[in-house]
Amino acid sequence: MVEPQSTWHSATTIADRAANRAPAVLTRTIAGQVLLWPPAMEERYGFGPFEAIGRTCWQLLQTMFWQPLDQIQAHLLKNRLWMGGLLQRHANGRLMPTAHQWYLSDDPVSQEVVVIELHSDIAAEHLADIVAAIAHELSQPLAAVGTYLHAANREPLPPSSNMSNVREAVSAAASQFDRIKAGMHLFRELGDALRGDR
Question: What is the rounded CA–CA span in Å between residue 73 and residue 104?
């Protein structure tokens, strides 16, 4: 449990100052449920407040994280601040590299700790996070493909009873290859987004 360490006023002052640099600010629970979805968020992502409020924000925006979410949340709870780059999707499906600043804040009404998120256009220093996210998406299926194919290669074809094991290994490798293809598509989308193609 996080002990409140800042006042609602100080947290919102930070958000107001950062909002001068980041055009979109939302408020959510620690678990990710959207509490406030102002017009700037609708303008940025295309979802209206009735679509967003009550939803889990990273599910709504199909957020792709460059490290496990529980590690990011743990960093936020410990330091009351997290910053980094994330990949998200607009309501129209367009991929959006976005710079994030998350702050813990103390809600004086509910007496609960909430999170203020600041979303802005991706900065150059966060591009490494985005590339790492996609690389992470590709590295696991690539390793799995190698494992399955090596297993299939070691499996002797005769007798015929072993063919089912070979087919399972090849099928699993094909499934992982589909993930790799999807990751490569993300790279192409990211390139379009960074070039400003819409």
Answer: 11
